[in-house]
Amino acid sequence: MRKSLVLVSAALLVVVTGGGCLAFLHMRSAWKDAEQQVQAEGKLGFELIPWHAPNTGFAALATPNNFIAGVQTAEGKVYLGGPGGVAIYGSASPELHARAKILQVGIELPAAPVVAMAAGRLRGAGEEQVFAATRGEGVLILSEDAGGGVSVEQLQPEVEAERDVTAVLPLASGDLLIGTQRAGLLVFDGKTLRVFDAALAKAEVAALAADAGGFWVGTRTTGVMHWHAGQMETFDQNGGLPDAQVTDIAVTAAGIYVATPLGVEEFSGGKPQRLLARGMFARRLASEHGKLLIATMDQGAVETGLSAEARSGHMALRQNAGNGIVGFVARDHDDTLLGIGAGGLESYEGDGAWRTVAESPEHALADRNVSALHFAADGRLWVGYFDRGLDVLDLASGRANHVEDDHIFCVNRIVADPQRQTVDVATANGLVLFDTRGGQPREKQVLLRRDGLISDQVTDVAFARDGMTLATPAGLTFFTPRGAESLYTFQGLANNHVYALAAEPESGRVMAGTLAGISMLEDGSVRQNVTLKNSGLKRNWITAIARVKDANAERWLVGTYGGGVVEMNDAGQISAMDGLPKGAVINPNAILVTARHVLAGSLTDGLLVYDRASQRWSQVTAGLPSKNVTAFAERDGEIYIGTENGVVHIAEARLP
Length: 656
Known about the structure:
Blueprint: E1 6-8, H1 20-39, E2 43-44, E3 46-50, E4 59-60, E5 69-72, E6 78-82, E7 85-89, E8 101-104, E9 114-120, E10 129-134, E11 139-144, E12 150-157, E13 165-170, E14 176-180, E15 185-188, E16 193-195, E17 205-210, E18 214-219, E19 224-228, E20 231-235, E21 248-251, E22 256-260, E23 263-268, E24 271-276, E25 282-288, E26 291-296, E27 301-305, H2 308-312, E28 318-319, E29 327-328, E30 338-341, E31 344-350, E32 353-359, E33 370-375, E34 381-385, E35 390-394, E36 399-403, E37 411-417, E38 422-427, E39 430-435, E40 442-447, E41 460-464, E42 467-472, E43 475-480, E44 483-487, E45 498-503, E46 509-514, E47 517-522, E48 525-530, E49 542-549, E50 554-560, E51 565-568, E52 574-576, E53 586-593, E54 597-602, E55 607-611, E56 616-620, E57 629-635, E58 638-643, E59 646-651
Antiparallel strand pairs: 1-21, 2-16, 3-12, 4-59, 5-6, 6-7, 7-8, 9-10, 10-11, 11-12, 13-14, 14-15, 15-16, 17-18, 18-19, 19-20, 21-22, 22-23, 23-24, 25-26, 26-27, 27-28, 29-30, 30-31, 31-32, 33-34, 34-35, 35-36, 37-38, 38-39, 39-40, 41-42, 42-43, 43-44, 45-46, 46-47, 47-48, 49-50, 50-51, 51-52, ...
């Protein structure tokens, strides 16, 4: 059996199986030195808790999983991780089962994307475990039970920065190294969590890899560090690396390879030797059959030989035919190398050839990062994305029409236009009016500065008695029977940067939320400005406004950046609302008013629900794929909720 590759794609356990007793004793001594060093550091607070899927009533729309990390266990099972959660493929001869078991974030897993994976055993564990690093919820420990199910434990540090995990590395000692974005390198021994070393307490860790005598730490800003014999050695741009940003590390029999945005540095004997793939943005590394495979940012997968002959001569790069390979499945045994492709799992066949062995789960939507939602009159759901255009989804058939072009790219808002009978899409490059008749949405008109807008970037749209009002970062533009007219600070607007609008369709009143407070307008003129200085506003930065009509009164609910939601009456008087998370940030235009509730989407606190009858706020996070809630739509008693990590829906009756 050929000698196995050791690959680390942001994190992987390296178990030395060859090299004899001397290598084993050397490594055990090295880990003993590390443990003694760790004992001198202070303990960190954490919880190790079983994760149970909450029965919340949320259901998710099918979105792409966008897997970026993976690991293969000793039994041959493949675990893939990404923003949508974890997919588990069982092994079969000669290739993987096509169908995978999916663990969704927010339901079977906590609401945070998985960015790195590794396999190993903590101290006292009887069976192999899979460790998943998450951006915001610590480390997930996945174990298979006797019935074939998967149990999940969550290692959750008390401090938020320590939960932002970027890499994991199980050690032969039974300890787990945990790399974080902002809290350096941590180590967990099954009972205590500590900072590994004070010198690494602030490191922005991006990758971890173990060799026979120690381990390597790749960082985002300070190069790569090699811990061995109880000491840490650092290599940055002045020490041999082409770039201080490290994206991956691969440990192979031929040497250590460190990926950067400017190429791959080869280390031998613990020292940098030469640069491979010069100028290429190398994201992930793997080794197979004496070759180094490199998943690049913009040039696909490439490979180069690592034999003695290749190392002594010109290092030729060969383009691969992989289906959008973005990474590799980590393994520490002799299974076939698997690549993580745009369409699923790819098996490396040698000489640049790949074969699809498992397709990605089916999905209707094109992306996960949702910025806007809207139900059109025909019942189809319009889904806008931050940087992928929009989808028009037929919920009955599950099929979607995708629109993405020079104008429909960064979507800010989607609204029904009662005057033109169109669906209007506010984007970073104009207002696009869609004709929805005939089934297929068709771009009817694009309004830009040449058409009278004060700016091409449109952040919100509202309709009052006399016409349409557009919010932009340069002020307001009104489209009325008189034509296009604009208004900005010179005419009294509180601030030129307008984020949100709300209007009374039967009158000429428009509320404009700006970076410096609220401008109350009538018939295109500023009547009053409500700011931090002259009202009870907690924050000047206004992100969302909604009109609420009760039986005996009319009011406006105002979302702010850092001050939660407040009430405002027609006179501009502000009243605080209790029961909201302290310092809540309401996302732009993320407020929906229904007959029973007011829903507000927050940046970090999930879904905020206001019961209009009891006048109480509740916070909902369980069941959401992300705590960053960005958009809402409602139809037939069902609430659709957009987040930065997908769309879920729930019967309104199940909300608090």
